[in-house]
Structures are given as structure tokens and as C-alpha cells.
Amino acid sequence: MMLQFGNSKIANGYVYLMLSLAILGLILIKLSNLHLPFYWDEAWSYAKAVYEMYTHKITLLPSEVNQEIFRGHPLFFYFLTSGFAKLTSFTPLAMHACMLGLSMVLLIALFFILKKHHGISIAFIATAFLLFQEVFIVQSSFLLPEVLIAFLGIFCFYAYVQKNYLLYILCGAMLVLTKESGIVAILVVCLYELIQFLYHKKLNLKGIAFLFFWSLPLWIFGLFILIQKLKWGWYLFPEHVSMMDLSIAGIKNRLHAIATYLFFSEGRNVYTFLFFACILLIAIFKWKLFKQIVSMPVVHLLLVFFIFYSLFSSVNFYSARYLLALLPVIAILSAIIIDQLFSNQKISFFFSILLAVFFLSQYFLIQTAGLGDTSKHYVHSVSSLKLTIDEFVIKNTRSSFGGDFLTNTNLQFPEAGYISSKMKLHVVSPDDAQYIIATSIEPLEEKIKELKQQNKIEMVYENVSGPAWCRVYYRK
Description:
- The protein is mainly alpha-helical.
- The protein contains 22 helices and five strands.
- Strand 1 (about 400), helix 21 (about 405-410) and strand 2 form a beta-alpha-beta unit.
- Helix 9 (about 165-175) runs parallel beside helix 12, helix 14 crosses helix 17 and helix 15 crosses helix 18 (about 325-340).
């Protein structure tokens, strides 16, 4: 399928040119921020763990790493990124550049997979949607595994549908060894395969053999957690297990948060309305085509994955960045529906351009208050703390400093990018520190309020950067 602008090769050339410009645009957006220090979970625990593997031993075996740093996670992400560090160096700039490069490679791979199976216009719509989501723009350079997880899951589904056994095993193994949530995609494939055999009444020895094959990534994950059990005495990291909440109220609240974020945040409310309107229109006016779409195996897999991953997320600790794995699902399903409704590749192409412009304008023009690791304002949080350290902390190195856990980590871990390797600071609990550092991420409100009421502290420094701030209080 090619856009018909007279000459099909020229048409494809237009699409590839626009894709190249879009990717170049993302790189230009990120370029000025690649040098920034690691932020939030980047600094703890991912950067710390990657640096640990970089300076010691690159391994996939959980028995050979410090679990207080690696937190029981599968090790492929650390294996991969510490390998990058060996080739470059371990600095925020080098690691962010490597992650941005990896994100672009994965995005281009997704484009060509969609082009092969659905045509170039669907590939471009899906890519245009995904490329300029705020969460993707932010996370594309972060030293975090969410972008890798999002793409590997989709690659597994297409490898399964095409019976590309080698690609499936490769992507499936990397997926389950990247993070525990990766098993959801493999479970969906196994469930779908089982249903197919039961529906066609072919659950014989051959069918069981195939089912075993598709489940191989799960066996790989099982081997990983078995090693953990034998070495450390637990299958999954106890602290993470303790964060699971199986209460009805908790699940309901997190499902609401998941739906709100995926369908109504970052400008997606407009796109959500358009998507469901297109579903309704194609069901009314193109019923046969609608039935063909909903009978596609990859559509089944994506829908079931969306449901199962949402349920998985609803019982675990909630973080918006974890939901990045579901955005490619929305991108692909909506691209199929919208393209088939138009039935005109030229319209699909121009719609893709408008889509990219819309989300790009949302990114630059819409003001939001979030400071998390899915928000563009993370830049202000990082800059605020970094400037506070540069302008105040380094001038008072003989004193003691204390803040929240992440701030104290950043003050003691030079590789995070906030302090130089030569700087040695006396970092203690804020209860004992001469200078207390509070940030807009962790404002220490109750502690600061109490100490102020007792007239035990006074603010001696403040740095404000956009919606973020960092304050230093002196203990009298």
C-alpha cells in the first residue's frame, strides 16, 4: 500500500522524508536536555544499578548482583545499558544519548513492521501519534526500561502472528528479562494460542508442543526467579510485593487513574473522541470492513493485552510512565480504524501530519503543573536542584546537608550528575542537618512547617525554575 501522488515511489519518498523530519524534530527537542543529571528513578535505582554493573561485572544472573541496588528486577536492561556505557562512558550525556538512539531505532523498526503488515499510511499514522506524545518525548532519552518494554511487546505480537519463531523467542526473552511486567504480553500470546486450539478442537500433542514453544519466554523468566529463590530466598523482591494492593477500592482507583491518563491526559481527550467516533462511523457505514478489522488476530492480541496489562497495573504501584507500554496499542488500533474509514491514503498521510502538529503544539503550548518523569517540566526540577548545589551547597561544603531520600542520593552519587567526583559532602538525615534542602518534588512540608513554628530554621536560599523550586533552610 502506497500513497498515490502520481508516482508510488515518489509517494513513499514523501512519507520517508516526513518520518525523517519528525525523528529529527524529536532529536532537536531532546538535544538541549541530554546533558542534564539523572532524574527521579533514573538516579535511584537505575543509574546506580547500571553504574554498578558497568564498574563490576556485566551479567544476566541475579545471583551475581547486589539486590539492594538491583531490587530484584530482571537484568537485561542493565546488561544492555552497561554495555552501552562500556562503548561510550557512564555520564548522563552519554547514557541519555544512547537511550535516545535506542528509542529511535525501536520506533523505526515499529514503522517498518506496521508498513509490512498494514501498509505505509497506517504505519505513518501510528508513528505520528506515538512520536510526539509528551510521555514518549520525555522518556525517549531516560535511563529507564519503559520504552524498551513498550516496543518489545508489540514486536512479540507481530512475530507470533507471522509465526516468526526466532524473532518471537528473541523479543520474548528480552521482554521478560527487562521487567516483570513483560510476562503479561507472553501470557496473552499463550492464552490466545490456547483459545485457538480449543475453538478449533485441535488440542492434541502437536498443539501442546506449539503452546509450550510460545510459552518459552515464561520458562526463561521462571528460571530467573528460581535462581533468585535459591540465592536470596525469595522469587520477587519483597519490597515490591509489599506494594501490591488487591483491595477492590485500590484496584478501582488505579483503573480510573489508568483510563484518565491514557484517554484524557496530554491532549489525548480530543484524539480519544475522534477514535471512538471513527469506530462508530465505520461500524455503521462499513460493517463488512469493521468485521474484518475485529477478526484480525493482531487486533485480538492488542485488545486483550490492553485489558490484562491494565489489570496488572491496577494491583501494583501506580506510575504514569508504566502505562507507556499501552500507547503503541492505542496508536496501532486507532491507525487501523482511522485509515480504513478514510479509505484514501492521501487523506491518511495529511491526517498524520496534522496529528503530529497537534500533539507537538500540545507539548509546547499547553501549560501543565506536573513535575514527574512523564512531564516536560522535569527539566525545571533537575535544573532547580542542580543550580542550588552549584550556587549554594558547594560554597558550604564544611556544613552538613540533608533532604529527602532522592536528594540525599544525588548529593552522594557523583555519577548522577549533580556533584563532581571530587566533591565530598557531609550528608545526613534532615533531622540532623545544619542545612535542610526541600524541593517541589519532596517539599518536606510537615517537617518544615513544624520547624518554622518552633523558630528553629530560616530560609537562606531559594531557586525557582518554572513550576519547580528548591529551598535551603538553615538550622539556627
